[in-house]
Design a protein that fits this description.
Elements (H helix, E strand, L loop, with lengths): L2 E11 L3 H13 L5 E14 L2 E15 L1
Antiparallel strand pairs: 1-3, 2-3
């Protein structure tokens, strides 16, 4: 029976929420193998002078442990 571990990461993007999630996956993939899923726990937009200038996400990343 495989063991699944979950870590929480924070990522951002100046383009979109989708891009922020992809950035999280790209960074986590550099050091973690066997990633199964990403659960987006929270989303926020950073505002400056009345305009959104970046998006942030808090993600839970699940992966199988060898």
């Amino acid at each position: 029976m495989p063991i699944v571990k979950v870590i929480e990461v924070i990522a951002s993007s100046d383009k979109s929420i989708d891009d922020a999630v992809r950035n999280a996956l790209t960074e986590v993939s550099k050091t973690v193998r066997n990633i199964d899923s990403i659960y987006v726990k929270d989303i926020k937009a950073h505002v400056k002078d009345g305009n959104i200038f970046s998006f942030g996400v808090i993600c839970k990343v699940s992966f199988r442990v060898d």
